[in-house]
Amino acid sequence: MSEDGSPRLGIVVSGSLNKGMEVRLDAAVSVEDMVVGRYVVIEGKRQRFFGMLTDISLEAADREITFSPPDTTDPFTAEVLAGTGTYGMVHVLPLLGIGGDVTGVEGPQPVKTVPGHFSVVNLASQPDVELVFGREDEKRFHIGTPLDMETKICLDLEELVKRSNGIFGKSGTGKTFLTRLLLIGMLQKSKAVNLIVDMHNEYGWEGSSERGHKVKALKQLFPSQVAVFTLDEENSKKRRVSTDFVVRIGYDEVEPEDIALLRQTLGLTEPAVEAVYQLARRFKQNWLREVLELDDTEAIKGLREEFNIHEGTFQNLKRGLGIIRRLPFMVPHVEEKAVRRVLEYLDRGLNVVLEFGRFRDVTAYTLVANMLSRRIYNQYQERTERAMGEDSPRPRPLVITIEEAHKFLSPEVASQTIFGTIAREMRKYNVTLLVIDQRPSGIDEEVLSQLGTKITCLLDNERDVDSVLSGVSGKSELKSVLSRLESKQQALIFGHAVPMPAPIKIREYGSAESYRSFSVRDKADLKQTAEKDIEELWG
Amino acid sequence: MRVNEDSRVGEVIEAATTEFTAQCYELYRIPPLGSLVKTRDQDVTLYAIVYYATTRGIEPGRRAIARGKDEASEEDIYRSSPQLAELLRSEFGALVVGNKQGDKLCHYLPPQPARIHAFVHRCSPDEVKEFSQSFGFLNILLGSRLPVPAEELAAASLRQLSQVYDDRRAFLVNAGRELAVLLGGEYGRLRNILERIRE
Asked: In this complex, is the C-beta atom of A83 within 8 Å of any C-beta atom belonging to chain B?
């Protein structure tokens, strides 16, 4: 036992800063009690090192032991050899220096050295973990606990929303639950507003758990802070969701860039996309309507000849545009533009969830997500630039949440979609992304590398694991942690918002108690705001 | 005092830094192989482990002759030839494994060898316990060059020492662990000893 009561594991016997430390386990410590991903503290002479257990191995002092092991009916020899002739080794990756009196700086610092030979290694105690991950406060949100402790692991949400972030994991590993939690966190503790492009209707009113029962989503928990927009009013009504706005998109809102992005989904050829640009130049804003309404063969022919469009290309184009026309939320013209309404809500500090109802096909999702985001981003860009010029406050930070992110951020389209731009240009214009995906290897490398914080549930495809972890120090160690996460409620979190990579057990979500823990805080926040307002009012 | 007298088994008749030979006061009353004995040299107590014992005629070069042809039992031979007890003697060799000066017990060789005619006692259970608190002496046993194999001696001494403990197994496991460290690269030797001490 160490001074503060955390159990002693063993001593450092070798290692390096790059590869981590080899720790020989004490005879009394069973290797079976060691779990990859556990936090340990190495007591160096001048500072303490906070690290993570990344591998466990069995060693023998003499190779002969492995050639002629003691008889299994001979517990005596086995007991003697345990911890002496045969012993357990664990591999520890030192990640942070904590509480060192040498630097005189409080708080965790990245490690630049290693503990000496025979430094004692203890399991990290609750205060150690708290020192590293901080306590829950106005900025920090409790996202989960370490794999084998009750201490809270907190995310600094103000830091988090400054950059684009990613949530990854195989299907069914709890990405949606994690996202919902994170969104609640952002709602409560960051100054950012959210636009959630909700393909599967999971975030607005209610979602369903794997076991099939309903869980409350944002609007139920924070009715005053969340607005639900829907593309499919009928479906929303059927699900008894109170919606704030029904989104319709006018033909005149569709720009050639939107079509270019849908090239593959609509099955358009390159020349067809080229033709879209030409037609848009000719017909201006109403190009889509004009083209769709063209049925006079002579007029078509004239047009084709004018722009030198091949007949096959034109047919291909019409077929593609026909798909768009058939989307039920497309109308020739709308008075109330969705973009304006979304911005209006966001400006008021309200978070917007855009539900797709039954229209979950890729075309609808890509088209709408891209259109809205692009227009909103343009507005933000304009406003930020104006704010910089006039030295006035910049617009409220915005986080756009997108699912199935590889559809927007694959290497082929990332350069064209607005999401690629947002991910790359990051926070310049106060707009960041929360990317959710199950195949991170399908996302453009450059975009992935720009994500500030990544939270990943279990991934078992080699390529996915590689792409998520690319560029992270201690990659091979983290890989073994990641591939051993349980398939539910566990995740590895690393990047900007946490001081060190952390495997976590995700906070419980879905029980009445969990809701209370959110809403209690909500009330506390309200009270705090009210007190602040009173203070301001009376000076 | 009587206990003390009873514990006295013989006296030193030959001494070196690393070992001594003692003659038993009574024929065949030899302390068992591996048992802990002590002797004093002024204020230093020497601890030693019995490693070897012999019984032979007092005159060098003269062997005993067979006498039991007409006797009914072995005991009868001694009964009908009472002089035998005086003509034969038992001796044992002991390997010095530690010393105690004042209260300080050390598991290494003493500054001086034992003195000739110094009394040799068997150690009491309390002394055995005190001595076997640490296993430093095993190193001396394993490194010794004696007529008996070192593994045999180490095992014998651990068996003897363990008798004073209520939890013999725990004592032997701890000793075994010490041996495992000492014989880090010599699994064969370690196994030989462990096979001889396991319960």
From this structure: yes
